[in-house]
Amino acid sequence: MDNKIIGNIQPALPYIEIDHLSKVYGEKFAVDDVSSVVYSGEIFGFLGPNGAGKTTTIKMIVGLLQPTSGTVRVTGYDVRTEQLKAKASCGFVPDTPNLYTKLSARELLHFVGDLYDIDRIQVNRRIDELLRLFDLVEAGDDQIDSYSHGMQQKTSLAAALMHDPKVLVLDEPTVGLDPKSARLIKDILRQLASRGAAIFLSTHILEIAERMCDRIGIINKGKLIAVGTMEELRAMGKGETSLEDIFLSLTGGAEAAEIADVLK
Amino acid sequence: MSLTAFPSVLKHEFSLWHHVLKLLRLRWTLFYSGFKRASKRRKIFTVAGLIFVIAIFAGIFIGSMLLMNLIRSPALAEIAPDLDGFVEAIPVLVFAGSFLAILLTSFGLLLQALYLSGDMDFLLSAPIPIRAVFISKLIQAILPNFTLIALSGIPLLYGIGASGGYNILYYLFVPVVLAFIAMAAAGISSILVMGIVHLVPARRVAEVLAFLGATISILCSQINALSRGFDVEQVTPEMLADNSNVILSLANSWSPISWAGRGLVELGNGNWLPAILFTSLTIGLAGLAFYFSLTTAEKLYYSGWASVQLGTRRKKTSKHETLEKNQRLRLFEKILPAPVRAIVVKDILVTRRDLRNMSQVVTPMIFGLIYAVMMLRGGDDAPLGRGEAPPFVLEVIKSAWIYGSVGISLFVGWSLNSRLALLGFSLEGKSYWLLKTSPVSAGKLLLSKFLIAYVPTILMGMLFLLGITLVRKAPYSIVLYALPAIALILAGLTGINLAFGVKGANLDWENAQKISTRKGSGCLSAIVTVIYLGFSLVLFFAPPLVLSFFQLSELMGQLIGMILGGIFSLAAAILPILWVKPLVYRIGE
User: Fold this and answer.
1) Looking at chain B, which terminus has fewer C-beta neighbours within 10 angstroms, N or C?
2) Rounded to 5 degrees, what angle do the CA atoms A161, A165, A170 make?
3) What is the pLDDT of residue A1?
4) B368: closest CA among B400, B413, B406?
5) Is A185 on the interface with B (CB under 8 A)?
6) Mean pLDDT over residues A102-123, rounded?
7) C-alpha dist (Å) from residue B2 to B5, B8, B65
């Protein structure tokens, strides 16, 4: 394992190692030879236009999809051959919180605690903490089907944090959240990273990526076309300074922006 | 400061019915494009179905005309002189029945169209009059059932008209009056929907409706089986006359529900005054009811009254129900690993709380009860013939009859297991990601799904067996043998169903009532499990019966049966599961 220094604080461990990862549907490459590493204590932003392969990559990292070729290692364990160990250290928040709507948030968190075989006393303590943190104490015993989208999203994040994962993978976590909840999630992610967790985050909100992420990867048409810190990405571009301009320049969206200017 | 309105982007202002037609055309386009894109097989089925419906239409017309001619024939008139009155009561019954049928059936459809279809916000924000949206929704909701009622009712009414020599106005007004009655029923139904949704969330209402609908339809389908004891020969002329009088009094009553039929019969017979009175009253009242319902529904829906629940909307889970506090579940903690226990308890709660799931679990119970009642009605004793057979043969037949009780228990178990094991993984739906991303092995996932299907199946199967054998006063030796045999057979059944359930798992569904497996797994599992049940019954129960027949030890036969059947059942329980184990992590890909 290669170690790295993140923010001059501590030697970082490669918690997510993606090596020549590909996923092919018929003849179409949804993900094409993607390689990258995310270190402990790091927030990695994963950007790309619609249909670029972000969700497919994420699904392969958390074990929801099997890669056509290549490997993913989470905390050193191959997701394909040592999947239980890899999954035990990973938490996942999908873009749509498809939860068991007939359970309450409290029941769902108990369920997740049991799936990860966490000690019962610890489960109860953790549930109370998470419900308080996400402002769900009052609704904790209501069935999830009575929750708003934002409440479901927060429940989904609480479920992902139940076992205090070393790796947290989030697919568009702030979609549908009010500013207060979005801020809360950002704070939580920053805190988790400062405690040594690796965060892999896909988002369309470039402001979040620019302000929160230590490094950013841009995927387009299945290929990872750029990876680096904001400074490194700026150096790759043609003088653009904002992430939005860099993103549009790299993914070919700049022409679309010019067309939009005509309509103004 | 006042602002002048911007010039409207709408070039023309259209009438209400223009918008209604536009919305209905949109529905038609959706249907037609669905048909065009459908597979060839589906297209052929649709066309064949249409031809079949037309054939039924023609059949009802010809059949009713011939029947009415027969009823009105002079030969029959000599035996039963007042049959004309009875025939003229039929239109009254048809129209009253149509009104009630549309009132009841359009409730669920309107609930779907107004609250659960998800296009109301889009339509109400478009530059279309709200009234046009409501009219098109009402038409859309009643159209399927109205078509069915019209296809069966109109030929019957025309048949009556043709046999009675009714004038042309009768034929013209039959569809018109039927349409008015349908619209009035739909209008009243829409008010009912909005009133109920004001009190209970729409999704919950839909769940309750689905549960009631499934249970009632199963009961109705089995009424024939239950009423087997009804003897037509016991029907007396007095009973017929009593029933006929009830129908005639309904037809001649002053109730508005009878006006439509009475008006049309009078119209057919050329009695103009009562015809105009009843027909215009019917059309006027129906139109008024529809208009009143429409305007009220619009106001209720637009003001938001109809979708705001009174009191607390959220469903609290009982403290007693929480996973932690449920005392019954403490037992599981000592036996089962935490993830298995968690999945089992989760499935129990999810199934119990969703009435759409419950309706599918209750169905086999209803079937089981009905067939158990039928079996017990058939008598406690085996058909022993006329006594020519030697006593030991009679004993063997009696044993076989008691062993037959196992059949009904297995049938109940089979129908319940087909739901619980076959659809165990599919039931997870879009929430399966939670299990798939958690560190739970495929073995534990399969064990939990096995238990959630096997335990209720075995409990119900044994309950039925004990009930039936107790009523039949079966010997203990047979009951004690049949109980473990059933447990083993059902274990094998669960293994097979579960394997097909993994192979054909379908996570992409919205309505729990419409969950089905993919790749023909459901059909294949039904065939394989029936064959399996046949083989296992033979292996378990043939040895004791054969040894009894040869006047050898029945106990020895039971031992042989237990060994043969046991090995076979255990193999069926384990091998298919091992076969599909690697597929568990590929479900949903």
Assistant:
1) N
2) 65
3) 47
4) B413
5) no
6) 92
7) 9, 18, 71
Q: Report the pLDDT value the prediction gives residue B1, as an integer from 0 to 100.
A: 47
Pair B154, B241: CB distance under 8 Å: no
Whether B589 and chain A come into contact, CB under 8 Å, resolves to yes
Q: How far apart are CA A39 and CA B371, in angstroms?
A: 65
Beta pairing, strands A10-12 & A4-6: antiparallel
CA atoms of B284 and B541, how far apart (whole Å)? 70
Q: For residue A32, give the nearest of A225, A247, A251, A249 by alpha carbon.
A: A225
Q: Does A94 touch chain B (CB under 8 A)?
A: yes
Query: Cβ–Cβ of A63/B585 closer than 8 Å?
Result: yes
pLDDT at A169: 95
Residue B313 has pLDDT above 70, yes or no: no
B271: its two tokens: 């009695």
CB contact under 8 A, A84 and B440: yes
Task: For residue range B181-232, list pLDDT tens digits in order.
Answer: 888 888 888 888 888 888 887 877 887 887 787 777 767 766 666 555 555 5
Residues of B in contact with A88 (CB under 8 A): 439
φ and ψ at A173, to 5 degrees?
-70, -20
Q: How far is CA B198 from CA A222, B306, B311, B493, in A?
A: 49, 5, 10, 45
Q: Does residue A78 sit at the B interface (CB-CB below 8 Å)?
A: no
Nearest to B260, CA basis, from B293, B292, B287, B294: B287
Q: Has residue A156 got a pLDDT over 80? A: yes
Tokens of B32: 């037609």
Long-range contacts of A83-86 (CB under 8 A, 24+ apart): A83/B439, A83/B585, A84/B439, A84/B440, A84/B441, A85/B439
Helix (H, G, I), strand (E, B) or coil at A132: helix
- Nearest CA-CA distance, residue A194 and chain B, Å: 24
Give this complex's ipTM: 0.86
pLDDT digits (tens, 9 = 90+) for B140-153: 878 887 887 888 78
**Residue at token pair 């019915």:** B17
Report CB contact under 8 Å: B313, A141.
no
Beta bridge partners of A218: A47, A226
Q: What is the pLDDT of residue B23?
A: 84
Choose the closest CB to B439 out of A84, A103, A104: A84
Which of the four pLDDT bands, split at 50, 70 and 90, describes residue A263? low
Distance CA B405, CA B412 (A): 11
Q: Which helix (H) or strand (E) holds A15?
A: strand A14-25
